[in-house]
Design goal:
Chains A, B: Keywords: Hydrolase. The structure is a homodimer of 192-residue chains. With 192 residues, the first copy, chain A, is of the alpha+beta class. Helix content of chain A is 21%, strand content 39%. In chain A, α2 packs antiparallel against α3. Chain A is globular, with a radius of gyration of 20 Å. At the A-B interface, β2, β3, β5, β6 and β9 of A face β2, β3, β5, β6 and β9 of B.
């Protein structure tokens, strides 16, 4: 196993190109471990939370929304960015987003995984939680003003069908469906 | 189901902030479907390919490398960006990256999934392929000059252990391990 030093690319110079409300973009000049230099294009992002929420009727919650970078409407699990101050409590972000987007409040949140989405250029980390004990809230917290979305409750077969048609097409949602399939497959394994 | 028009955010003005070798960054002012305007921070990326490669000895191939946005070394499945001209043949990119990074050439590539990684701000799509019939190449194609990496062949249990320790921590690699678990679980299901 090579040491960290054999890999590390030390920043010689960083140029911050853009500081937005969500992302920060930088261009680094780095010293390569084998000598020489290279440029690295970097996007910094506060991270987010995705919620795997299965209702008592064995349906998973999805939201249908427009995604500007794709110029299309897709179906995803409920998710949201981590706001300043929530960084150390992603389950708080998760419960808030779930309620805002779907009107359900979870009694229990269990951490499933944390994953970098595009480690080649971005530091965005997504935390995934299983939301259990879902209860419909009478007066749910309001969504962000610029969000339009539709809530769906789908069975596993319906969700797999939406993957085939391409409506479900993002990494966190595909993870959630695989998680569900694995949980069910474990229940069906032969123990005899 | 709401119509596309109920969701669409039309671009009023686009400001291109950065055009790099890998990403392009833009700031859009959009017209919201319910009236009013909002800003959207956007990253455009050519997309990539990730390879789920399992050797005849039932081990999966991983590469250990430094990721500048994270300032750390992580363990991932072999992957690479789609080069101009390869856009319509991601399996070509995949086979090339697999050979460059691991020295294995696949006899067969099967498409598993295509997924947006961060649809909230980026249009990057990752295509995942299963590489079968792996053969060691005597003189594999050379890697990009600025890449340092170490190849690992791990059993499923070893890979799950590396997820626990956090060395495996990115979405495509977690997808690959879940895919492997599901394929094995399906083989173990009760059919009686």
């Amino acid at each position: 196993m090579l040491s960290f030093e054999a890999f590390e690319e030390k920043t010689i110079k960083r140029e911050t190109l853009f500081t937005g409300k969500i992302i920060e973009v930088a261009l680094d000049e780095v010293a390569l471990p084998m000598g020489g230099t290279a440029k690295r294009e970097l996007v910094f992002h506060p991270g987010g939370v995705g919620i795997v929420a299965i209702t008592p009727a064995e349906k998973m919650l999805f939201v249908r929304q427009f995604r500007k970078p794709l110029e299309r409407v897709i179906l995803e699990i409920p998710a949201g960015k981590i706001d300043p101050g929530e960084g150390s409590h992603p389950e708080v972000t998760g419960a808030r987003e779930l309620e805002e987007e779907t009107g359900y409040r979870p009694q229990k949140m269990t951490h499933l995984a944390s994953m970098y989405l595009s480690p080649g250029f971005a530091n965005e980390m997504l935390h995934l939680y299983l939301a259990e004990g879902l209860e419909k809230v009478e007066n749910p917290r309001a969504m962000d003003e610029d969000e339009v979305l539709e809530v769906y409750e789908l069975t596993l077969d319906e969700a797999l069908e939406r993957m085939k048609t391409g409506e479900i097409c993002d990494a966190k949602t595909i993870y959630a469906i695989q998680y569900w399939q694995l949980a069910l497959a474990k229940g069906r394994e032969c123990h005899g």
